[in-house]
Fold this protein.
Amino acid sequence: MTSITLSPSGQCVPVADGDTVLMALEKGGYALPNNCRAGACGECKVRVLEGQFDQGFVMDMALSQDERKQGFGLMCMAKPLSEKLVIDWGMADAAPKLFPPREGMPYVVVEKIVRTPRITEFQLMPVGTALRFWPGQYVAITAPRPGATPRHYSLANAPRADGTLVLQVTRVDGGATSAWLHEEVDVGGTLTLSGPYGAFIGDPKAETPVLCLAAGSGLAPILSLTEAALKRGYRQPVTLVFSARAEEDLYASGRLAYWSRLHRNFRWHATLTRESREGRLHGRIPDVLPGLFPDLSKHSIFIAGSTGFTEDCLAVVRALGAQEGLLHHEKFVSQRV
Ligand code: FES
């Protein structure tokens, strides 16, 4: 039977007849980043260390001749020709390897959308090579002001074929970078990014029910993780609970409703902390969660929001039986303004 060995972990994945390397990895529970699944975006690029494969038809812009010579291939189209293929994948324990961050990547703002009174969304497209990232990671932006320091913003989308990035920026009182982004950066302008950073990516090969808890623009990395999981056909139940002060602070509800229509395993709830509305929960997530999930001992849990929100959620999910190894959290500390 043909197999793929992941180096350096030595873990092995069988390949069924006709399957690409990407399909085999996914069936084996390994979530290699991918996007177009058609040899056009380069997202699934991996170095093959041993063995032969048929690359199939892929575009030069996704895999250059130089990269081919160095042994790289696009796994969405690659099919093994030899019985054993060894690929460079992950760390010694097969955990995903992060992409090395790059600096000074120019992106053009193609859309600027006011999502709530405090959150504005920027949709960006790359001028040069697109950023490669794992869902849940963030980028750094520095305002062009004397003495300005980099500020961090989570990516709110899964990797896309055209390289689009989505940022959701909360306006913070006294925050120079967020004020600059909200007031001065407009459609057609250029932003220079560095990244990707962060390891809020969980374990892409975990096969457990998933619970995501988010408040404010903490929703951004949760949207990225959820979009990626649903796109790759994650089968376990995925529930997202989003907390906002009032109805006007809720955003992305159209997208969440769409996902829940499209994917029977996806559900979401909104809870409002400062107003009551029909069809919405009322109260902070730590207060409403025990009523929704009395037992969290089997869930992978992702939490993103302010430090206080994250700490309070961690306390309640631990009290509901959450396992430490399945807990992932991203605190938006005050420097992320
Ligand atoms: S996912 Fe393989 S090239 Fe796009």
In short: The first strand starts at residue 3 and ends at 7. The pocket of FE2/S2 (inorganic) cluster is lined by residues 34-37, 39-44, 62, 74, 76 (CB under 6 Å). The helical segments are 21-27, 65-69, 176-183, 219-231, 253-262, 285-292, 307-319. The chain has seven helices and 19 strands.
